[in-house]
Amino acid sequence: MATDADIVPETVTDFVFDLYDSVTLSQLTEEQSRFYNTVFRDLSSKYFGSSPWPNVSMVARECNGDPLFLAFYRELTHRHWHAVSRPSLRDRMEGWDVYRELFDELLEGSEEDSTASQPKLFILPEWAFDILHEFVYQFQGFCQFRTSLYNSANKHGLMGGTGAAADGDEKGSSSKKGPPNHVVENLAIMREDAAHDVWSVDTVMFYLHRLVQIGTSPKCTVPAYQYFGIFASVALSRLECLLTDYSSCLAALTPILESDTMTVSKADQETKSFVQVVNGVVSARLSLVYHAGISLLMLRRYKDAAITLGELCSYMHRGFKTGHLRQLANSDQLYKNYDRMIALLAICTQLCPQSDIVEETIAKVIREKHGVQVGKEAYTELFVFCAPKFISPAIPDFYEAGPIENVYKLQVQMLEQELKDQPVFRDLRSYLKLYTSIPISKLVEFGNAEHMVSSLKLKMRQVESNNPAIPSLKEATPKSALDIHYYVDVATNGDEIVHIDEAEKQRRFENYFFGQINQSYDIRKEADGINLNV
């Protein structure tokens, strides 16, 4: 006899049937967008606010048991449950099975389906991005959970021997009360053979690279596979950044940013380039630019980082001001990421002294939000606020005790080491801008070490993209990010003289006019809000 838990509401079965139809038969963008973005969220709030959706066996008949669609359904509902609950270790391991099943189904028939004239599959670009974004997010979460578990077990003396302590033996415990039960239980799970290959970084990389290879191939003409290829490239870039491989982070974006001739075509949509597809999904564009900005900063490409971040921050600033971005379902998360990018931009604009590198409106936001930190040159404080949660893919040995490296702290230390001379550089640059020539001996009297003259020039010589809109590694050349040019010559009396030639300033009037327009808009908005009734 069926219980209440086994009875699926009719509205839910109708939703599954309609979603299946939009994925395989009708393939209408607007229709699927309503199901994915509105109906699913409403049903989740109404029936599954604190419980999981029905499993695949309970809805299989609504889609004729289609294994690929059921894999999509399982991922969608698992993602919802992962968001509304506090996932256990078993839940995280189940997530690995969910994504492996989905990607295996996708790749199994990809060679034939991706070039078919009548595609058997269509999903929205934002749906494809959400899947791949969550895939990397859950991998990141599992790595952090694993590291935290190892540190806790190490702290409570559970890492030695053959695991007797994990079975409840408190002999080696440093705590009188013994280790927490959840640590003991999770440690026992991680020591199982089945846990060894869960969320393996090699397999995660394989899936992302394979999807990029198929979806960005000139032979691929099916929008669904193209979307997966495009957003797998974005997800791969994010993953490389989290793993602190910053050059690979930028290289992963090559299939998107340097494929000018590649387009995505669908009957009920206009033809779009790969870049336009990414820009059409705000969260994807934000992920791409944010992680590229972090990578450019850590690679000492401050000007490229400032230009890349400044463009998106300007777009988001206007979007929040007009209310366009506030209408999106994830507007709160977008605003948090916007704040993080502003903090990151504050670092970059301070390290790259060229004027007019960002719009005046964004420069004003930076001064309002982070003027105090910038004045104190508190770069570490800003970086801690805006940096992602870096991870280590290394799998700890759960039978041996020992320290495990904190990747996040290591990146902070690397940035501190790189920027330790910046206060001296700023003072030196301010002195050089006051003179056309000055003896080095005089600079030394001002408190600047002699070697800092050459160090400043060396540090500010950065790799700069030939196309500022594309943070490429291939089309980039070393250039100076300084706003002054200087060289050292030996005078007749033997003194070393620094000759300074301030770089030619480009007069840019558009920033002034944009600033005045925005100011007028604010004044008019305030005036409209005044109550004139007496």
Describe, in short, the structure shown.
With about 525 residues, the chain is mainly alpha-helical. It contains 23 helices and seven strands.
Largest sheet: 3 strands, antiparallel
Number of strands: 7
Helix content: 55-70%
Q: In order across it, which strands form the biggest sheet?
A: 3-7-6
Shape: globular
Radius of gyration: 28 Å
Order of helices and strands: HHHHHHHHHHHHEEHHHHHHHHEHHEEEEH
Indicate the mean pLDDT. 84
Subcellular location: Cytoplasm
Family: Belongs to the eIF-3 subunit L family.
Keywords: Cytoplasm, Initiation factor, Protein biosynthesis
GO cellular component, one term: eukaryotic 48S preinitiation complex
What topology emerges from the helices and strands here?
Layout: H1 10-24, H2 29-47, H3 56-59, H4 67-84, H5 89-108, H6 110-113, H7 125-155, H8 181-190, H9 201-215, H10 223-242, H11 246-251, H12 254-257, E1 263-266, E2 269-273, H13 274-279, H14 282-298, H15 302-322, H16 331-351, H17 360-375, H18 379-386, H19 407-419, H20 422-432, E3 437-439, H21 440-445, H22 452-459, E4 461-465, E5 476-480, E6 484-490, E7 496-502, H23 510-528
Antiparallel strand pairs: 1-2, 3-7, 4-5, 6-7
Description:
The protein is mainly alpha-helical and 534 residues long. Helix 7 packs parallel to helix 10 and helix 14 packs parallel to helix 16. The longest helix is centred in the N-terminal third of the chain and has 31 residues. The N terminus is likely disordered.
